Amino acid sequence: MSLIFVLNGPNLNLLGKRQPEIYGRETLADVERDCAALARELGHAIRFHQSNREYEIIDWIHEARESAAGIVINPAAFTHTSVAILDALNAFEPPVIEVHISNIHQRDEQHRHSSVSATAKGVICGMGAAGYLLALRGVAMCWDACAGK
Ligand code: CA2
């Protein structure tokens, strides 16, 4: 069994409570429950976190360096601005999968750019909350490949 960190950036605590036409009706608690269930099914465990503070996300990435087989991250607005999160992810060796609920490529130029994609093994966007589950499968797939399964 391995540990997978699922990290969420600012305002994602409002998921399901505002702008359902963009971000859907699932709350972050729903996403956490579904991720935990899938991880169990795949034989892994998750640590699921959300913060509105950049430094907390960076601290969790550092913690993941000690123990995690991969990171699934939706950096939310920090996607478009954060060199600090990119630097932290660059110091994390196992696979990182970047997730966005909405399709950021349908947005304006600022929202189309991701500062973290350069370090990601994969990027999933526009698939709604199901993107988190696809990303978890991606990390599990890499883990199995490393274990020669
Ligand atoms: O589509 C995504 O997952 C985003 O990462 C969401 C971010 C946005 O800045 C990115 O460009 C794309 C915004 C998260 C805000 O979350 C809310 C959720 C519900 C209601 C209001 C905000």
Describe the structure in brief:
The protein has 149 residues and is of the alpha/beta class. It has helices at residues 20-23, 28-42, 54-67, 83-90, 109-112, 130-146, and strands spanning 3-8, 45-50, 68-74, 96-100, 122-125.
Walkthrough of the structure:
- It is a single chain.
- The protein has 149 residues and is α/β, with parallel strands linked by helices.
- It is 42% helix and 19% strand.
- The chain has six helices and five strands.
- A five-stranded parallel beta sheet has the order 2-1-3-4-5, sandwiched between helices.
- α2 (28-42) packs parallel to α6 (130-146).
- The longest helix has 17 residues, at 130-146.
- The relative contact order is 0.20.
- The model has no long low-confidence stretch (mean pLDDT 96).
- Ligand CA2 is lined by residues 11-12, 14-15, 18-19, 23, 74, 76-77, 79, 100-102, 104, 111.
